[in-house]
Amino acid sequence: MTKRFALGIFDDEDVLLHAVENVREAGVKIYEVFTPFPIHGIDDALGIERSRLPIAAFFFGLTGLSFALWMQIYMLGFDWPMIIGGKPHIALPAFIPVSFELTVLFCCHGMVITFYTISKLYPRWKTPVLDVRSTDDKFVMAIEVNENTDMTKLTQLLRNNGASEVNQKEMSKF
Amino acid sequence: MQHVSPVREPLVTGGKTYHDVTQDVCRQVEAAPNIRWMAALSVALLLLGVFFYSVYRTLWYGIGEWGLNKTVGWAWDITNFVWWVGIGHAGTLISAVLLLFRQKWRTSINRAAEAMTIFAVICAAMFPVLHMGRPWLAFWVFPFQNTFGSLWVNFNSPLLWDVFAISTYFSVSLVFWYTGLVPDFATIRDRAKGPIAKVAYSLLSFGWKGSAKHWSRYETVSLILAGVSTPLVLSVHTIVSMDFATSVVPGWHTTIFPPYFVAGAIFSGFAMVLTLMLITRVVFKLEDYITIEHIALMNKIMMITGSIVGVAYITEFFIAWYSQVEFEQYAFINRATGPYWWAYWSMMTCNVITPQLVWIRRVRYSIPLTFILSIIVNIGMWFERFVIIVTSLHRDYLPSSWVMFSPSIIDIGIYVGTIGLFFTLFLLFAKFFPVINMAEVKSVLKYTVDNGPTYTGHDPHHHTPQPATTHGVPASASVNYDKHD
């Protein structure tokens, strides 16, 4: 479905930050903000909720720890018990290194896979971008518009808040 | 948009704007390879050829091609393994530990340092795998059910801990590095002219668009990866040191090994980062990003870890004497005055004495001296591993089995070959990937602001607009992040 966007282009992240607050205060819904680097404070300004990835990471780590302990206890303690170096079959202190490494392994990979999945990031042949300068040095505020939108008013609002340009763009796939 | 603070030294010099950062970093990726790069790659490929030849000889004729004997069953292979793993540690340290400590200066060097980690660990992994003699059975180190029935790997063995430590370390470092690269690949993709570059960088960039929500998650992921990688990097070299410390060989059986090895790893790693950065900044004209301040800061870390290593050497000696174990005492006397005295004193000179020169400000801020120093430290740290491994093994409890070790030409070939492998990978990385993390450098470009954010809007009589209704959009609508992406 084709979508139409009004794009406010900003030159400075602090200007953008104020603009985001003001535009939202003015009752305009922001579709998305594209920036070349993370801007601190923009989460609050846009009302982005805190990511729950840390919770996911914790549980992935817990899975890794449980798996490692189960694996070592089952393999050396039950499936093929052997006395090695005079240690008991289930030598928990000797199991610490592998348990730690697998905790980290599961935690990191689980979290990173979750991050790519929920963000819908995957290798693709072509990436539609609203304004290619948003990965270089411009800060782009995208506002979805339709026929009823008063473009002059919106342009004025963005201009007053420090936008150096206001463009319109249509995107069939976005 | 460059703000200069009267208090702090700028992290990036030359009054760069955001666009300049993109230009300067992408220039290398977009331009045709220059003659110096081609020359360097040719040398690296030549050494890589040496590597392949030596590996072929090792696999075809067996481990007998190496200089090992019944007494010294570990020598250059494990020396090189520990050396390479140690070098890798600085990358994770810069990207993880310094991120947690909010050291903003890391941004200019973390990308190359992380790449160095990946390539150093690849080189390191070659040695234990080749030492198996039959690398096609390398999967036996993992707990797979095998053809002998349910015989499992020995989880009590530090060598198996190494398997888990190194493979976790490698894969986590790889993911950390790649996730950091994704936004920069997007920058290159959006600038790309040719169709091949467009498709290639689009695939590599995973469709990154830099939306605020993605950045927010990206930062969360980076922070947690850093938090988890910090104990990971300490654990890896601790476990490597346990390969020795859990044995009963005099000179190895030491509780000081884990912290001592970790310090040594960071020491040699920073030396290698310095070597690489000093070359990279000149070859790719990145003097404004990797400034003299960066070099001085890295020098300081190298000096501190070098001093820790020096204290560890002295402590080992003291404990050998204090323990009253005659075998321990002999092992250390033999190191300093025995047939390998030259290795021991090379190690002492390179690792304990030379880094102390960094206390002198003029040395710390001198590029040629830093370069020489970093090479000396790398040599010294190689000798450290050699001294620990070979001098402990060649004379242990049984005088009838005392021998000397000398490397064969294949030993040397594999070692020199891994240096070729490392530099081949690093040069390819430097050509096709952005060597400096553009996104992170841009985010610290205004770091030196001390008067708060600067407003440079076009309307000097800026006022907050009154809440107004835009047609088609309900008033006080919140940002909706759930319905699209």
From TrEMBL, chain A:
Q: Which residues cross the membrane?
A: 55-74, 94-118
Q: Which InterPro entries match?
A: ActD
Keywords for the protein's UniProt record, in alphabetical order: Membrane, Transmembrane, Transmembrane helix
Q: Kindly indicate whether the keyword Transmembrane helix belongs to this entry.
A: yes
Q: Which Pfam families does this entry report, sorted A to Z?
A: ActD
State the PANTHER family in the record. LIPOPROTEIN-RELATED (PTHR40394), QUINOL:CYTOCHROME C OXIDOREDUCTASE MEMBRANE PROTEIN (PTHR40394:SF2)
This protein is called what? DUF3341 domain-containing protein
Q: What is the lineage of its organism?
A: Bacteria, Pseudomonadati, Bacteroidota, Cytophagia, Cytophagales
UniProtKB/TrEMBL annotation, chain B:
Chain ranges passing through the membrane: 37-56, 81-101, 113-133, 159-181, 221-240, 260-280, 301-322, 342-360, 367-392, 412-433
Q: How does it sit in the membrane?
A: Multi-pass membrane protein
Which InterPro entries does the record match to this protein?
Answer: NrfD-like (IPR005614)
Signal peptide feature range: none
**What is the first-listed, main subcellular location in coarse terms?**
membrane
Sorted alphabetically, which keywords does the UniProt record give? Cell membrane, Membrane, Transmembrane, Transmembrane helix
Q: Where in the cell is it found?
A: Cell membrane
- Which residues does the annotated region (Disordered) include? 456-485
What is the similarity comment for this entry? Belongs to the NrfD family.
Q: What is this protein called?
A: Polysulfide reductase NrfD
Q: What organism is this sequence from?
A: Hymenobacter sublimis
